[in-house]
Amino acid sequence: MSNDQTVIEQFETDSPEETFELGKTLAARFGVGDCVAMVGDLGAGKTAMVRGIAAGLGVDDIRLVSSPTYVLAHEYTGLVPVYHLDLYRMTDPDAELIDLGIMEMLDTGVVLMEWADKADQALPQSYWQITIDIDGPEERTIALGRIGAP
Ligand code: ADP
Ligand code: MG
Asked: Residue 74's beta-bridge partner residues?
């Protein structure tokens, strides 16, 4: 996909807990209609970040927050509906996103998407992107950016 990311802010974390807390803080910037794309290697901390954002959006039981595998999407109840998608195992991510109803999800809630870089046309015209780079066993560089027109 074309990946013209405008980096808004960059952070560094030194533990999974710090990434969780960062997600909780960043959640204040997200609301209904926002898609947040999580990009980073396996084990980077995408799910950890989703957990923090979900907590910040008012999802009480974050133990429920895990990568959707057998089902392709999880829905959590927060202050607004929070949808958690993971494109890792999808064979045709664009088609599956449309089938899952990504546009309808965005009408009512926030969409948090792991491995979003596997999709292309089915992504909204404009969305947030959180890129996580692994710098060491517990060190991560985390960039918050915007893709597409505001
Ligand atoms: P992903 O969803 O990107 O595959 P997960 O969030 O499932 O990654 O897992 C991240 C792994 O990395 C966990 O085992 C976590 O404990 C570990 N980890 C170590 N340091 C960090 C950090 N700073 N932020 C997030 N996860 C970290
Ligand atoms: Mg994950």
From this structure: 84
| Cβ 138 under 6 angstroms from ligand 1 | yes
Tell me if residue 119 falls in helix, strand or coil: coil
pLDDT digits (tens, 9 = 90+) for 57-73: 999 988 888 877 767 89
In this prediction the pTM is 0.95
Residues contacting 72, CB < 8 A, separation 6+: 85, 86, 90, 96, 100
DSSP string, 2-41: ---EEEEEEEEESSHHHHHHHHHHHGGG--TT-EEEEE--
Q: Is 16 in the pocket of ligand 1 (CB under 6 A)?
A: yes
pLDDT over 60 (residue 2) = no
Task: Determine the 3-state secondary structure of 70 from DSSP.
Answer: coil
Give the helix/strand (H/E) hosting 111: strand 110-114
